[in-house]
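Fold tokens
===========
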Amino acid sequence: MLIDSHAHLDSPRYADDRELMLRRAWEAGVGAVLAIGIGEQATGMDGALAVCREFNGRIDSGAGLPKLYASAGVYPHNTQEIDDGVLAKLDSLLAEPEVIACGEIGLDYYHEGAPHPMQRAGLIRQLEIAAARQRPILIHCRPKDEQTDAWEDLLEILEAHWRSTGLGGVMHCFGGNYEHARRSLDLGFLISFAGNLTYPSAQPLRDVAARLPLDGILVETDAPWLAPAAHRGQRNEPAWVARIAETLAEIQGAEAQEIASATTKNFLRLFRLGVNVGD
């Protein structure tokens, strides 16, 4: 069984075939998907939970669907929308049993968006809420022009405001160097690889992946974006997480089933879920 640890299932790009897309994931061996709740605006962070509740209710009927979990958080560029109402909504969502993580949150210095100090302040406020609710976090980190400034700022914040919680989290769609990965692992994070791992230009990232321990990795699609190389230019979907697992297996000199087993165990351990993903 595979778990897609990061997919935006509430995206309007799935509006016409969301159930069929989830059935394809099940048929491809995907037993669970973590639906990311950030929405187009901060107030839409409950969209992932709505999708989870819509489809999880059909699993007992043998509908052939993966188990869905949800997250909730304010994306870095939307931190300028944070106010008391948004934070209260985040807190209430993290109290829901299906919402197992806070995110994706973090820092993005690549695109024009919220000012960097505002992103850092917004991240810290969300860390406080996630800690109080005992939820691991899903981190988005993207520097500008290959610079490491975002990574240095991020890791400094996590050292000061997150390490002591012992909750850990996920470095989503990892794109840093080995030192960033090593420091993340030391902080209790798992390193998650997406479709960009399969791109011809991603050899430096593959070199990092080759050095990581099996108990420190996850696979994800970041669907509907970042389709694997074989599907580049198409709408991505959770079924294709198998392509990332296959690439990771080649990189690590392992069998695809070994990667599937390890990443599933890692996901269940981090989020304190039963061996049966439905627990």
